[in-house]
Every structure is written in C-alpha cells, then in structure tokens.
Amino acid sequence: MSGSSLIGVAIAIPEPWGAELEGWRASFGDPQASAIPAHVTLLPPTKVPDDEIAGVQTHLAGAAADVVPFPVLLRGTGTFRPVSPVVFVSLASGIAGCEALEQRVRSGPLARELEFAYHPHVTVAHDLPDPVLDGAFEALAAFEASFTVEDFVLYVHVDGAWTPRSSFHLRG
Fold first, then answer.
1. How many folded domains does the chain comprise?
2. What is the domain extent for residue 146?
3. How far apart are CA 94 and CA 153, in angstroms?
4. For the chain: N or C, fewer Cβ within 10 A?
5. Residue 69 has what pLDDT?
6. Which CA distances in Å does 141 have to 60, 68, 88, 98, 108?
7. pTM for the model
8. For residue 101, what are the contacts with CB-CB under 8 A and spacing of at least 6?
9. What are phi and psi of 81, to 5 degrees?
C-alpha cells in the first residue's frame, strides 16, 4: 500500500532577502520560522499519494512552461487580522504573475478549493499574540526588495520542516 506526502508549491524568496525575512520571523518568536523558508505560496499544504508525485512533477513542469519570468516588488506590510492572525510583507508588483502561476499550478492533479481567496504575500509572523503581530507589522513597514521570479519550488513536509524537492524554471 502506498503512503502519502504533504506537499506545497511556492516561489522561494531569493537571497539576501529570504534569509533576512526568515531572521525577522525568528526574531518575532514564530515557532515555525526555522521550518518554513521565506516564500510566496502557489499551492498551500496538500496531501498527495506518493505514487502520484511523478505526475505532479510533470504537471508542475507544464505549468512552468506556460509562464514567462516576471518581476516582483515586495514593499511594506499587511495583515489578515481579524480573520487570521498573520502579518506579511506585501507584493507591490508581481501580483498578476503570481496569480497566473497559481492558477496553472492549482489545476489538473493539484486542483483543490482554497479556504481563503488567493492573495500572494510573504508571511513574517503567524499565530502570535497581538502585541507581537503589531511589532512585526511596524518593524517591516519600510521593507523593500525586488527580484525576478524565474522558477518555483515543490516542497515536501519532512520531519516537521518544508524541504525543497524540485525546482521548475519558467519558460513561457
């Protein structure tokens, strides 16, 4: 009998900003800081039978083939409170590229309903007391970084951490 894996698909935040945002998340006391690389989610945690992973990788390669690299500008902070206790770094540009990529990723074998409407962002504090979330919101209000999205990553949840399994280069 085959098992299953918990996967996620995301745009990894490149260096030096990925490490900087991960450091900020750790500084706020977020217990998930060391287990979750800085990223923009394309597919939230999704359980997939192990014998379907090869098909998922083929699907993701096809999604990457349909999208051209695109610029992203991260700037400032936002929050999902009071709906969800999350503070994030906002995308000032690149939203349409993320949405196009997310739609291609979350189709075919990865088609699923979302709990909330898709909103690309980079989480920097989650499930923390309100004063800590307020501090995170203020601390990163002036954060800014720009980069070109040239690929995205299939992550697998292993031993409590999200581990990269495969990268897919945008070729559209």
1. 1
2. 4-169
3. 17
4. N
5. 97
6. 34, 30, 10, 22, 38
7. 0.94
8. 11, 42, 63, 67, 149, 152, 170
9. -65, 145
In contact, 122 and 136? CB cutoff 8 Å? no
- In DSSP terms, which residues pair with 167 in a beta bridge? 153
| Structural tokens at position 122 | 């980079």
- Residue pair 7/43 in contact (Cβ under 8 Å)? The answer is yes
Full strand arrangement of the beta sheet holding 70-79: 121-126, 86-93, 70-79, 144-149
Residue type present at position 30: D
What would the pLDDT profile of 10-47 be if each residue is shown by its tens digit? 999 999 999 999 999 999 999 999 999 999 999 999 99
88: β partners: 78, 123
Structure tokens at 33: 């800081």
CATH code assigned at 112:
3.90.1140.10
The number of angstroms, rounded, from the C-alpha of 133 to the middle of its chain's C-alpha atoms is 19
